Amino acid sequence: MMPGPMGGPARAEAARLSAIFEATGAQAVDTSILQPADVLLDLYGEDIRARAYVTADPLRGEMMLRPDFTVPVVRAHMEEGGDPARYTYAGEVFRRQETDPARPIEFLQTGFEIFGGDPAQADAEVFATIAGALEGLDLRPSTGDIGILMAAVRGLGTSEARKAALLRHVWRPRRFRALLDRYSARTPLPAHKTALLAAADPMAGIETLPGLRSRAEIEARIATLRAEAETPPLGEEETALIDMIVDLRETAPNVLSSLRDIAVDMPAISDAVTGLTRRLDALSARGVDVETLPFEGSFGRTTLEYYDGFVFGFQSPTRADLPPVATGGRYDALTRQLGQGRAVPAVGGVIRPELVVQIREGRA
Amino acid sequence: MIRLGVPSKGRLMEKTFDWFGARGLSLRKNGNDREYAGVVEGIEGVELALLSAGEIPRELAAGRLHLGVTGSDLVREKVAGWDLRLRELAHMGFGGADLIIAVPQAWVDVDTLDDLDAVAAAFRRTHGFRLRIATKYHRLTREFLREHGVADYQLVDSQGATEGVVRNETAEAIADITSTGETLRANGLKILSDGMIHSSQATLFKSNTAPWSDAHRATLDALEDRLGL
Predict the structure, then answer these.
(1) B78 & B113 share domain
(2) Mean pLDDT estimate for chain B
(3) Sorting pLDDT into bands at 50, 70 and 90, what band is A1?
(4) Pair B123, B177 in one domain
(5) Beta carbons of B104 and A211 less than 8 Å apart
(6) Domain residue limits at B41
(7) Does A175 touch chain B if contact means CB atoms closer than 8 Å?
(8) Torsion angle of C-alpha atoms A30, A32, A37, A39, degrees rounded to 10
């Protein structure tokens, strides 16, 4: 029998974890279970409906059962928090399961978030604190850094429009790949586009235009497509460097040395690589064995979260059927989106107490 | 008795009756036309229930029907993890309809999902909200668009006359069922060249969750023999 969210052992584990986070000076915070749906929908789009329970209040409109704590904690911090600040929380989150009936729809999360301060130090502290809290369990860490890929895209020698399109799809690897293939002329321009761009007046014969999208918007897109067609393809070398970053899968020191080589040809990633070096030093200073720490260039790219820097997870190697016991990462961009112009560097992570209990019992 | 659910009215019912009839099984409504129970002649142990085609997926998933005839689109939309709970016994070759994504014909710059995604990004910047796609097939549409990495859209519910929403300015695009595309064209819409979400047809489903006693299984075997499955 899997311990439910109300199970005593899981509650006790959540309390133990909260105490560890509070001991670092984190302030215990709570959030409402019912969250306004519009904020989450605006951030995550339609996909969140597949993951979160939506309900409706006659006066407040659509509400969601909180799918995580990060968004409400960030909102509260951006409205009233000091700088720097650190928080911890514990409670139920709710997730719809559309495919796997074995996955729980309600489970506990105990979390730890740091706002402000030196990013490398904060990254290392969150990771090391969570690793320390999970000590004694046989778990395999994973790490990555979405910021390196984003820096590489920003450094491409191509149009701003292409870079913006690639950055928009960093979290959707399949579309990212399709865009990269098109921009590097690995896939030809579809016949529809060739014909459209060859037409003297692409809008000829269009008399009525139903709906909100105006003629000016269509013409602007055609102009964008023209400009795109005239932009020279990305060089083989540049796309090869992006491929190398995406495919990195090694221990952190080996990855670091590969990235330093890549940075020679792609100086745009130098700052991000320096950031990785400083993070690894900070992790090492906190007793993390960075020599064997795994690093994957694409780790964290398929999550719904808004991670845009350091990302990490802890998974049981013997219970690959279970979700990760802990996950986290840096989400600077999320604070900008929720902060109405203000932004604060922020990093955090969550542990799932039920999974800790389950793995600990399985081992005993 | 095995409970077989079939659509209770219209062409879908007639075609279903014809399909079983061609295989030597006569399906009939009981008594007058208003009654929703029927009989199956030509085999022992099968009882007929006439239901709305839209309710049959749920009844199959709940195990209240052993067998049922309905559109494959409805099963995929209404039953989460449908392939664990149901099994397709036969594609029946009628009731064909495609669930597709369509946009205004005037969008000369849009032909593929790739275009739709680019337009959605620009639309959100210009209008301050996500491009709206009207549909009643929320799950299928959302899964399809996620699979293909389309972002910055929102689904708005439309339970009927979906082709009219663009003209009424309640949505910019639609995801809807079409058999010939005629109604779409008449409403100034066109189908994306890679916008086929699901090609649906009437399908005979078996419920894995219904109680299957030895007697039920024997009846199913006999039925499958008769149907040539």
Answers:
(1) no
(2) 93
(3) very low
(4) yes
(5) yes
(6) 2-95+201-227
(7) yes
(8) -30
B113 and B192 share a domain?
Answer: yes
Q: Report the C-alpha gap between A180 and A307 in whole angstroms.
A: 21
Contact between chains at B151 and A45 (C-beta distance less than 8 A): yes
Return d(Cα A294, Cα A254) in angstroms, integer. Answer: 10
| Residue from the list A178, A210, A221 with its beta carbon closest to the beta carbon of B122 | A221
**How high is the mean pLDDT of chain A?**
92
**CATH class for domain A8-152+240-363?**
alpha beta
pLDDT at residue A305 tops 80: no
> Structurally, how many domains does chain B consist of?
2
pLDDT at B161: 85
pLDDT surpassing 50 at residue A3 = no
Claim to verify: residue B104 and residue B80 sit in the same structural domain? no
Q: Which of A157, A188, A186, A182 is closest to A169 using CA atoms? A: A182
Chain A residues in contact with B137 by the CB 8 A cut-off are none
The reply to whether B89 and B101 lie within a common domain is: no
pLDDT digits (tens, 9 = 90+) for A158-190: 999 999 999 999 999 989 999 999 999 888 889
Instruction: Establish if A193 touches chain B: CB-CB under 8 angstroms.
Output: yes
Q: How far is CA B127 from CA A45, A212, A340, B163, B174, in A?
A: 16, 9, 18, 22, 18
Residues B89 and B162 in one domain: no
pLDDT at B71 over 70: yes
Domain ranges (residues) in chain A: 8-152+240-363, 160-235
Cβ atoms < 10 Å from Cβ of A91: 15
Give pLDDT tens digits for B108-147.
999 999 999 999 999 999 999 999 999 999 999 999 999 9
Instruction: Pull the structure tokens for residue B190.
Output: 């066109």
Question: Confidence band (pLDDT; 50, 70, 90) for A276?
Answer: very high
Closest CA to B130 of B122, B141, B140, B139: B122
Q: Is the same domain home to B109 and B191?
A: yes
How close A237 comes to chain B (CA, Å)? 25
Tell me how far apart the alpha carbons of residues B80 and A101 are, in angstroms, rounded to a whole number. 9
B interface toward A at CB cutoff 8 Å? 80-81, 84, 104-109, 111-112, 114, 117-119, 121-123, 126-127, 130, 138-139, 142-143, 145-155, 166-167, 169, 171-172, 188, 193
Q: Chain A residue with minimal CA distance to B173?
A: A211
Write the residue in A101, A211, A221 that is nearest to B109 by C-beta: A221
Q: Which CATH number is B206's domain given? A: 3.40.190.10
pLDDT above 90 covers what percent of chain A?
78
